Amino acid sequence: MAPSGPLHALTPEPSKCLKAIHSLCDPVLNANTIANPKSRKKYKYLNFANALIRGRIAHNTPFVRVIPTDLCNLKCSYCFQRSDDPFQMSKEQFSAYLKKAKEHHIGMMTFLGGEPMIWPHLDYAIAEATRANVITDITTNGTRLNAESVDRLGRAGLDFLNISVDGLTTTEVSSKTSVVVKKELLDHLKKAKEKYGMQFRVNSVIHKNNFEEIKQLIEFSKEHEVPISLGYVVPHSHGDHIADPAMYFTKDDTAQLNEIISHIIAKKRAGYPIIDPEEYFTGMHKFLKRENFWSCNYPTRYGWVNITPRGEIRSCTKKMDVMPGFTFLGLTQTKIKALKETLEPMVKTCNKNCYSNCAFDSYFYRTHKVEAMKKLLGIR
Predict the structure, then answer these.
(1) How many CB atoms lie within 10 A of CB 231?
(2) Partner of 192 for a Cys bridge, out of 53, 154, 222, 274, CB 3.0 to 4.6 A?
């Protein structure tokens, strides 16, 4: 018999009891889950626009890159953004950094490494940033991606997922093949995009010996409508290891480079979803001649700040350094101004030795407004 009388009004429905029990038993799931992440997008972009405006008129930090760990579960021979330091950012540290970032009107938070997906607090961090209406973005080697982890990232409100993929097979240079080899992973990513609004793309590197693989990745991107970003591998001037010199292009590789450039540009003009501008690919000849033809100002113009696992400031995500005299929690508008002034001559020094496609793309679209608008509107 169903309960009746005065006690009935005090007796919760069984379904509500189950929800309450589930909530108590799984607090982590609830803390890391955003109700309807898609509905947050408009507030995130409004906050982002506000952050950009404030970044132009004041010394704020509209963009923050969080490096919660320098550890990586891979050792790609061309990569120098890793170390064996086991220290990882704690949940409490991250919360303090997010609070500080909000004081400086953050608009976007990127999670890098090392490999950010080995950090145990990633879902929590993304969810907390989402609650603060901050756009989130991670770059991963893809080895930890599966149905469950993709759904977790989506539930936490991740906006952009960048997956590094260097080929269809594992080589001595790189073993990053994830989304290309695991076709079921592509289905999970597309479901997360539809359900949560989580955009995803592939990042790939070009060196002297892998262009046949790159051609296949370009075809993969077209077939599955996955945006792809392509960047040249160049020698680095720091780090504790040196990759095989045979992988780097030199001024003597003009014919090979021209073949690569022609192929990429032809595909791009045919509608393939290649993100980077044509000028990045053609500019490789100028880079090899050490011409001063572009200006990297990632850390100096709008306030990119890179936070190390210990809360220090790193001059660039492509370096494993620490800026003496600066910590993220110690940043004030005066300190941010001083940081930019310190970074400016450093950037000019390393600009000729670096040809980062993400930095070049930012420079290009900032200085070519029409191209930037066409890209924004999806006009080829």
Answers:
(1) 19
(2) 154
Other CB atoms within 10 Å distance of the CB of residue 271: 9
Q: Do 137 and 112 touch, CB atoms closer than 8 A?
A: no
Q: Do 314 and 308 meet the contact criterion of CB atoms below 8 Å apart? A: yes
* 283 touches 360 (CB < 8 A): yes
Question: Do 264 and 256 form a contact (C-beta atoms < 8 A)?
Answer: no
Domain ranges of the chain: 31-377
| 3-state DSSP assignment of residue 11 | coil
pTM of the model: 0.87
Distance CA 236, CA 309 (A): 22
- Burial of 348 per CB tally in 10 Å (0-12, 13-18, 19+): middle
CATH ID of 31-377, from 3.20.20.70, 3.40.1090.10, 2.40.50.460, 2.30.30.240: 3.20.20.70
Q: Find the helix or strand (DSSP H, E) in which 367 lies.
A: helix 357-367
The pLDDT tens digits along the chain (380 residues) read 444 444 344 444 544 544 444 444 444 557 788 989 999 999 999 999 999 888 888 888 899 999 999 998 887 777 777 777 899 999 999 999 999 999 999 999 999 999 999 999 999 999 999 999 999 999 999 999 999 999 999 999 999 999 998 767 666 555 566 666 678 899 999 999 999 999 999 999 999 988 999 999 999 999 999 999 999 988 775 555 556 788 899 999 999 999 999 999 999 999 999 999 999 999 999 999 999 999 887 777 666 899 999 999 999 888 888 999 999 999 998 999 999 899 988 888 888 888 999 889 988 988 887 776 666 556 66
What are the DSSP E strand ranges found in the chain? 63-66, 108-111, 135-140, 160-164, 199-206, 228-232, 304-307, 313-314
First CA to last CA distance, the chain: 68
Structure tokens at 338: 């001083």
